[in-house]
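Quick one:
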Amino acid sequence: MWPHKEVLLLIYKNMKYIKILPIMFVLAIVLTVSAPSQAEAQSYIPAYNPYNTNSTFAIQLSNGSYVQMSIGDILNLIQNLRNQISALSGSYGYYSSGNTYYNYGYGNRSDAEDDLDDAYDALDELEELIDDAKDDSDVSSSELKRAKNDRDDVEDLLDDAEDAYDDGDYFEASDLAQEAKDIAEDAYDDLDDAMGNRNNDKEDARDELNDAEDAINDLEDLIDDADDDGVRNSAINDAEDELDDAEDLLDDAYDAYDDSDYDEAYDLAKEARETAEDAYDDLEDEF
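Output:
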């Protein structure tokens, strides 16, 4: 492969910088490169190395003249362009070791900073929810532990993202920050759903307990009215037995509620309500 092809490839990969500020690229270089003969090339490139800053190339300008540039010159030009426009488009740079230049980073610094900020915001929200969950007896220890493990993973990813950012690898920093943000948001949603589901179960159980109490009170009132009328028969006796059963079920429902077993509390309270309502309807049919 001829040396000028290496330069063309290098320039092509960095065209996004050259296109943005073309005036900085040697007064509008036309990307036509004169291909010297092998003898001509060997006459001014004693030891070709595509990453050696002493390797030089003849670049044809728009006026037909030539300028001889080394790879070091081209890399320095690209680096200068990168310094000028990194905030607008991206970043692409090199560090040198002797006469050899190495690529050290690329990506958009501004985007990386935004992604890091978003990830830290998601982490802060997760931290706040974890703190709330610690004081919520309804959240199981396994759910809380899972959220904490996810939080630790997010912190590790953000540490790696910060390292990548410091190294100038903004693409990597963005990728890691976005991954951290996704994990934090998923962990938040999982913990929030767990707390929300328990709150809903708790609310449903409380509503059913209240309904069961109302049904039992209605049955008691109906039994008292029947007694006041001087009526005493098997229907009232049956209603009182059903009342006792409903009250026992309601007591069990409250015990379950106090133990935070809201599903069980709901089921027992519902059974208590239905028992009282059926007994009410049966007794009412007798009078």
